[in-house]
Every structure is written in structure tokens, then in C-alpha cells.
Design goal:
Length: 174
């Protein structure tokens, strides 16, 4: 009789603890809802599709990989750059290769950008910047030919960027 009572109490206690704890919440959140930049993105200008994945072993660093490009010489799966977190939330410093296959042989095939993601992590803008020193050889020309040449971009600020096109669904226990 004692054994039955002990078994009954054990089963009842297990049932009560299971009922009070419940199952873990496995709500499925997209990467944008998780607040991460990981995912598949498409450049708004030329339509190139790329993937942002975390770089193993580094916190706040991501790898950029081409998935599809209008330039047929670029092989899908080519690594073309890195992103590194900056001190400003939502901004990442990027070193992007303009020749991921290395066919031109140029040593200056990397461009620097600031990737700025919006709060919903569904859009980002690209702002180019340059670093280093530069020598203007135009200063060596005679006085008559010292005409300043300026390249004025007519494109409005903030229109070059990318849009998230795929948000893989991954279960996250909350």
C-alpha cells in the first residue's frame, strides 16, 4: 500500500511540474526580427544577390559571398568582402573586392564602404569612403593646363544599397 501511495505521489508531482513548466516557446523568428544582419540581400542598382554570414571565431565580423550576379564572369559562391562592426550601432565597416575573381590583376581591387542597416534590418545603404594618400600628377602640367576637374555625382545620398530578400526561418527558444 505504501508503495502505491509513493508511486501515486511521484506521478502526481511529475504531472504538476510538467503542467506548471510547460513546453519551451519555440516561436520562429526571422533574422530581421532577431535583429541580425545575416541573410540574403540584393543590391538595388545592378541586382547582384549576396549572402551575409558570420565569420567563425570572430565576434562582430561577417563574410560576404556572391550568390548570383549579372556579371557572368563572377562565379556564384565567390567570397567578395568582409564586414566589421563599428562603434555606432547598425553600422559596419566593409572591405569589398570589386574583382572577386582576381582577373584584372589590379592591386587596388578593394573598395571601402560603410554599410548602414535600418532598425528593422531589412534595408541597408552603402556609403563609399577612401583612406590613404594620393598624389595629383595634374600639378606637374604647365600653368595653362591646370584646370580642376571635378566629378559631381548626381545621384542622391542614401539611394545605393541593398534590400533583404530572404529571411530563413529558424526556431529560437524564448
Amino acid at each position: 500500500m505504501r508503495l502505491r501511495a509513493a508511486a501515486f505521489i511521484a506521478v502526481a508531482a511529475a504531472g504538476i511540474s510538467a503542467a506548471t513548466c510547460g513546453e519551451p516557446d519555440t516561436t520562429i523568428l526571422s533574422p530581421a526580427e532577431q535583429g541580425t544582419i545575416e541573410g540574403v540581400w540584393q543590391i538595388s542598382g545592378n541586382g547582384a544577390i549576396f549572402d551575409i554570414k558570420p565569420e567563425p571565431g570572430y565576434s562582430g565580423r561577417y563574410k560576404l559571398t556572391i550568390i548570383d550576379s549579372p556579371d557572368y564572369s563572377v562565379v556564384p559562391g565567390s567570397f567578395f568582402g568582409t564586414l566589421a562592426a563599428t562603434a555606432t550601432p547598425g553600422q559596419y565597416d566593409a572591405a569589398v573586392s570589386i574583382d572577386p575573381e582576381g582577373k584584372t590583376g589590379s592591386s587596388r581591387s578593394t573598395r571601402n564602404f560603410i554599410f548602414e542597416f535600418d532598425e528593422s534590418h531589412s534595408r541597408c545603404t552603402l556609403r563609399p569612403y577612401s583612406a590613404g594618400k594620393r598624389i595629383s600628377l595634374r600639378r606637374l602640367l604647365p600653368y595653362l593646363f591646370r584646370i580642376t576637374i571635378e566629378d559631381r555625382g548626381s545621384r542622391p545620398e542614401g539611394t545605393v544599397g541593398a534590400v533583404r530578400i530572404d529571411t530563413p526561418q529558424t526556431p529560437i527558444a524564448l
